[in-house]
Structures are given as structure tokens and as C-alpha cells.
Design brief:
Layout: E1 11-15, H1 27-41, E2 45-51, E3 64-74, E4 77-88, E5 91-97, H2 99-102, H3 118-135, E6 142-146, H4 153-158, E7 171-176, E8 184-185, H5 190-193, E9 206-207, E10 210-212, H6 213-220, E11 223-226, H7 229-234, H8 245-250, E12 255-257, H9 285-297, E13 308-315, H10 321-324, H11 328-334, E14 338-345, H12 347-359, E15 364-368, H13 372-381, E16 384-387, H14 397-403, E17 407-411, H15 414-419, E18 433-435, H16 440-456, H17 458-470, H18 475-494
Parallel strand pairs: 1-2, 1-6, 2-5, 6-7, 7-11, 11-12, 13-14, 13-16, 14-15, 16-17, 17-18
Antiparallel strand pairs: 3-4, 4-5, 8-10, 9-10
Bound molecules: adenosine-5'-diphosphate and alpha-D-glucopyranose.
Length: 497
């Protein structure tokens, strides 16, 4: 994908709305912790910036004040905030504290509705990140932003800071983790955001009369990435592009698909301190203990020889739970298998899946909410992991589950397509089970295929677990690709104007 030019160490400003372990709603948080760590290992100087949400405990994470107050120019007013610092390993992580914007219980919404001022909240985060660079005299070579929440970073660099000597050598990279969420807001926010009318045009921010943050980033960023090669192809056309396909096509040359990795410090059955028993390819006995603990935790019948299918997901249409809903009861009545569900999101899905254990006690377990312990327990204790996603930019759970010897069952889309090697019944090889059609019965037969493999071809199961557990999705490879992308962004920046 990239030429093999020599990569030098860079100063990288990495801005994200979620960073594990401080705040997490999905995979973006995992990436925003693991990628900076991997970049640091390659020799880059990385600084991470995120909001100091109300839920981030200053004492638990030993947050130290760095600047108070810091004035951030928004439109024609100065907005004052404080900045705190903590560390991930030895990477500085800066928290922007502003009571009115971030001192509330949710991240993006109040549990029912998106916050009415998300445009102002996240526009402010981007401006504050740039102001922080000045105040601590950190001149980044690269400003790396992620998804709509931090999409304004690149436009701010190209417009407000276009002639600013401090950011003269800063190039921008924008990563798309999910193009379905673009950050679309009423134009009333333009003034506070400091986006001039000359940029509120169809090729930049304007989208059917509204401001589209992601669209603006696609115009202004020096380089664009997304989280898997397949997704990079899918979003160039509709419906994958969610309306932004034509704008991505214009930047085709600057768009790169770089697969997410696994942070093996967190997700590795040999070292995982969260699970009840550790295990490895050489000694799998711990996995049986994890399975037993999983059955207890979810009130399932304690049967070591019945396959368990697990799901850990945000309950949104993306995750394909609507393919499972019509067949789940047929599955548990026709096949000897157990199911566990962990997740939260849309009320109708929560009600449906949350209500199943009462109808099928001992066979289906469910827990509605976010719980890191249960997520690790499912990864380690289940035999199969379900991801029937309608689309999946990358997906992390399928690659985590492979490391735990829990075979993923996935629809062939986006990153699922790039990471799971479908079972070949002739050779007994593969790392999971794949299907194509967006159809409950395609999923039904694939689960049936997995159940029959579990009972009838145990030697194939053993072989697949071995292949899955030995697959390497380390962040190092991806971080090297990002490093090359940074070089490319810097070259492109110099030829932009
Ligand atoms: P997405 O970012 O689209 O939600 P990913 O597969 O990339 O999907 O990442 C999801 C991450 O969020 C994984 O680390 C997964 O374990 C975690 N996760 C999702 N839902 C829950 C939950 N209810 N409880 C704990 N962890 C969860
Ligand atoms: C998004 C995507 C998911 C991806 C994650 C991290 O939330 O839905 O597929 O793994 O971002 O990049």
C-alpha cells in the first residue's frame, strides 16, 4: 500500500472522544489506547487528548492539573477550561475539563437522546486540543483525529491556523471508525464553531442545509484512513458510504484501510487477570473453568459438553441482532446449545434479548448493560462468538475471541471479511464460520454448521482453535502502516495550497 520510505520519529497529537480505560462505549476507546501505545513503541512522541467527562474519576486515575485556566477561542468569544494530565504507560494523556460541556452523566447522550449541544461540545474539544499544544509548546507533526467527534481538528488546522507559524508543519490525518455517524448539526452552530460561510458549501461542510462534521474532515484532512481494507472499499460506493461515497471518491488517493489490532496486554488468555483461570494453546484446561464460570454467571445449565455462543455488542442495527431475533427460539429448541448476550442500546432489542432467559431458563443468559468483566468472561468461556453485523468497519471482538480460542461466526463484511478465515470442512482448516446473505436463515444454517462441527468433528474444532489462537493481529503491524500514512500526510500537506 505504501512505498517503503524511511520512517522518522514524529510528534503526534491524537484526539479522541473515548480512550480506554478512562471512558469507553465501544471499539474506538480500545483503539485510542492501543494505537498510541504501539506508536510510542515505534519511537513516536504521542500525546492523547480527550474530554474530562464527569464519569472519569480524578482520584482513581491520578489526574494532575496542568493548566487552569486555558482560554479557547470559539467564534468571537473565549471559553475557559482546565486541563488535567494522566498517563497510559508513559504516554501523556490530557483531559479537557469544562463543567458545562462534559460534566454530565452520559458521553454522547442522556440514555435516550443525543445531547442538544454535541456540535459545540466536540468543536470545543478540537479547538482546546490545539490551544493546549500552544500552551505546552508541543508542535505536532501530525494531528490525528477520529470519527465525527474530533473531525473538526483538520478543518481548524487548515482554516483558523492556515497562516499560523506554530502549526506550520502540522499535517492532519482523519480516521473513520464508523461512517454511519457523521455529526450532523443545525447551522445555528456555525458561528460558535468558527466555521465561516465560505466553508459552508456543498463540497465542504454543507449537507442538505445542515453542517456535516465528517464531510468537512474529508475535504480538509491531508490523509484519511479507515479501519480495514474491505471497509475502505465499501465506503467508496453507496450504500456503504452513507451519502459520503462521492466525497470519499474525490479523495480516493488519500484514503487507506489499516486494520485494527489486538492489545495483547489486555486481551490474552495467558495473562488476562480478569478471567477466572488463565490458559494457553499448550494447556487449555483453564478454558473449561472459564466456561463453567460463564455458565454460573449467566444462570445456564452447567454442562461442559454443550456449545455456548456468546455476543458482546452495542445493541444497534449495525450489529445484525435483528437477524438473530427471529431464529433464536427455533435455535434453542432444535439444537443442543446455549446462548449468552451482553450489551445495551436500542430499547426494543434490550427488551427482546433481555427477556429471553425468563422464557428459556438454563439455555439463554442475558445481561443488559456495559460490563468489562462479563465481556472477558464471554470471550474466554464461550465456544463461539457471534457477529452477524450488517456492516462492520473493523470489529474487535472477533479478533479478541480468536485469541481466546472462541471461534467467531461472522457475516462477510468490512473488517470481519478481512480477519476471519472461514472453515473448510474438507481440510478442517479455518479460524471461524462466515456467511454472506443478510437473511436470518443464512445465520441459522451457519450456527447449525458450527453446532454440527462441535459435536461431529472435534478434531476440526481443535485444529481451528489452534489456528485462531496462533493468528497474530498485533498493533505493531498497524502502527507501522500508520507511520507510513503520517509520512504521506506530511508530503501531501506541503503540496496542499
Ligand atoms: P463497536 O466499536 O462497533 O462497538 P468493536 O467490536 O470494535 O465494535 O468493539 C467493541 C468493544 O466494546 C469491545 O472491546 C467490546 O468488548 C466492548 N463492548 C461492547 N459492548 C460491551 C458491553 N456491553 N460490556 C462490555 N464491553 C462491551
Ligand atoms: C467502530 C466500528 C468497529 C471498529 C471500531 C474501532 O465503532 O463499529 O467496527 O472496530 O470503531 O475502530
Amino acid at each position: 500500500m505504501f512505498s517503503d520510505e524511511y520512517i522518522t520519529s514524529k510528534k503526534i497529537l491524537f484526539v479522541s472522544s473515548e480512550v480506554f480505560p478512562f471512558v469507553k462505549s465501544g471499539g474506538l476507546a480500545d483503539v485510542s489506547c492501543a494505537l498510541p501505545k504501539a506508536l510510542k513503541k515505534l519511537g513516536h512522541d504521542v500525546r492523547v487528548v480527550l474530554p474530562r467527562y464527569w464519569s472519569i474519576d480524578k482520584y482513581q486515575y491520578n489526574l494532575k492539573p496542568v493548566i487552569a485556566p486555558m482560554g479557547v477561542q470559539m467564534g468571537n468569544c473565549l471559553v475557559w477550561c482546565a486541563v488535567f494530565e494522566s498517563k497510559i504507560d508513559d504516554i501523556p494523556v490530557y483531559f479537557i475539563e469544562h463543567e458545562q460541556f462534559f460534566g454530565r452523566s452520559g458521553i454522547y447522550d442522556d440514555g435516550k437522546k443525543a445531547y442538544y449541544d454535541n456540535a459545540e461540545r466536540y468543536g470545543f474539544l478540537c479547538k482546546a486540543a490545539l490551544q493546549l499544544c500552544r500552551d505546552i509548546n508541543f508542535k505536532p507533526d501530525i494531528a490525528h483525529s477520529n470519527d465525527w467527534q474530533t473531525a473538526l481538528l483538520a478543518p481548524y488546522l487548515k482554516t483558523w491556523h492556515a497562516y499560523d507559524s506554530f502549526f506550520r508543519n502540522t499535517a492532519s490525518v482523519f480516521s473513520i471508525h464508523n461512517i454511519a455517524y457523521q455529526g450532523i448539526f443545525h447551522p445555528n452552530s456555525l458561528r460558535f464553531l468558527g466555521i465561516g460561510n465560505e466553508h459552508f458549501t456543498e463540497s465542504k461542510f454543507e449537507n442538505f442545509g445542515y453542517i456535516n462534521f465528517m464531510k468537512g474532515a474529508l475535504f480538509f484532512a491531508d490523509a484519511i484512513s479507515t479501519v480495514s481494507p474491505s471497509y475502505a472499499r465499501e465506503i467508496l460506493a453507496e450504500p456503504g458510504g452513507n451519502g459520503l461515497g462521492p466525497y470519499l471518491k474525490r479523495r480516493h488517493e488519500d484514503l487507506h484501510g489499516i486494520l485494527n489490532g489486538v492489545d495483547y496486554d489486555c486481551w490474552n488468555p495467558e495473562t488476562d487477570t480478569i478471567i477466572p483461570a488463565k490458559y494457553s494453546l499448550d494447556d487449555m484446561s483453564g478454558k473449561a473453568e472459564c466456561k463453567k464460570a460463564l455458565q454460573r454467571e449467566f444462570w445456564l445449565r452447567e454442562s461442559p459438553n454443550v456449545p455456548i455462543f456468546g455476543i458482546v455488542a452495542r445493541f444497534t442495527p449495525q450489529k445484525g441482532l435483528q437477524l438473530l431475533a427471529p431464529i433464536i427460539e427455533k435455535l434453542v429448541t432444535e439444537m443442543l446449545a446455549q446462548f449468552v448476550f451482553l450489551g445495551s442500546g436500542e430499547k426494543n432489542l434490550e427488551d427482546f434479548f433481555g427477556g429471553l432467559p425468563a422464557k428459556h431458563p438454563g439455555t439463554i443468559g442475558a445481561w443488559i448493560g456495559y460490563n468489562n468483566y462479563k465481556a472477558h468472561l464471554i470471550e474466554s468461556g464461550a465456544d463461539f462468538f457471534l457477529m452477524p453485523s450488517l456492516y462492520e468497519p473493523c470489529g474487535l471482538n472477533q479478533i479478541y475471541s480468536m485469541k481466546y480460542g472462541t471461534l467467531p461466526i461472522v457475516r462477510k463484511t468490512g473488517g470481519l471479511n478481512d480477519t476471519v478465515w472461514s472453515y473448510n470442512e474438507q481440510t478442517g482448516e479455518g479460524t471461524g464460520f462466515c456467511f454472506d446473505a443478510i437473511d436470518p436463515y443464512a445465520l441459522y444454517y451457519t450456527i447449525g454448521w458450527a453446532v454440527s462441527t462441535y459435536y461431529d468433528r472435534p478434531e476440526h474444532m481443535r485444529n481451528m482453535k489452534k489456528l485462531a489462537m496462533s493468528a497474530n493481529f498485533s498493533w505493531q503491524t498497524s502502527a507501522e502502516q500508520y507511520s507510513r500514512l503520517y509520512e504521506k500526510a506530511i508530503n501531501r500537506r506541503n503540496s496542499w495550497w
